[in-house]
Specification:
single chain, 51 residues, mainly alpha
Length: 51
């Protein structure tokens, strides 16, 4: 479980470095880890990354 959380965190940081905002990065990493369709989740998370 600890390794899975670490991998999700690393993925989220990677997405953030690619240009996604913080909320989008976390949503995308979680959706991929849980094998969910992440497209709508990322769009839904966008307003939460404004600060």
């Amino acid at each position: 479980m600890e390794d899975a959380r670490r991998d999700i965190g690393k993925d989220a940081v990677s997405y953030f470095n690619e240009g996604f905002n913080c909320a989008e990065s976390v949503a995308k990493a979680l959706c991929e880890a849980l094998m969910l369709g992440g497209r709508n989740a990322v769009k839904s998370a966008t307003p939460f990354g404004g600060g």
